[in-house]
Amino acid sequence: MGDRDWRPFIYGGLASIVAEFGTFPIDTTKTRLQIQGQKIDPRHVELRYTGMVDCFVKTSRQEGVKALYCGIWPAVLRQATYGTIKFGTYYSLKAALGARRADGGAAEHLPTNTLCAALAGGLSSAIANPTDVLKVRMQVGDEKRNLVRCFVSIYRAEGYAGLWRGVGPTSQRAALIAAVELPVYDACKRRLQPALGDAPLNHLASSLLASLGSAVASTPLDVVRTRLMNQRNVKDSREPTHRIYRGTVDCFVQTVRNEGPLALYKGFVPTWLRMGPWNIIFFLTYEQLKQFY
User: Taking the model in full, what pTM does it have?
Assistant: First the structure.
């Protein structure tokens, strides 16, 4: 790819949106599992669900199947920004730095790929943070209005700070996921190529391995991020607010102290089960779009 090639950005965004539609109900169950059982938050102290399947069934029965897709539009908007910037930046930056190496970028270089992925993931996630806040609020069920009304409600009650709540752990998590997921995918794809070729079966196997690594690495930060995004801090109000955690470290410490270390892996199963199909759909779509190069 030459300079100023926008195709990785466009293809990355399109593939991300397709993958988001295909896996969003799993993401809703993950979010609800991560929110429940907070002993210091009276709104979510109850353990309503015993697991992913139970959450899926109860949500469908009590609120309707449509509730599983509550928050889909901010999620799509997020992928249109986050996915576009993340994947486009990664592949473009990797190619630019590879061209400066002695081999001209002919061989994959793990440290370079990891650095490019972390930068791309952190930057894109920070930019798209407001859409993530909207998605979490709508998935939990507190905000069932449309996207614009939800945005206005959060802005009026909490100001700009409400839309950027949890940006620290969000960008850290995204950088961690990207730093594991993208280099692992590229490395697995390269190692499997002699046996499987540059074919869909190779892309499927590589994406599954990449999703397992990123799920293990990112779930604790994802739990912290979700809880920070869900708490309220109403501006100019004398009424008690729902600000439970002061920041990333405080949320991490209080979660472990009150619920035990395993609480940091709440929602791990739906996280992995979502990352697996999401990555499969994304990379298969992306690789097919690359055929237009």
Answer: 0.71
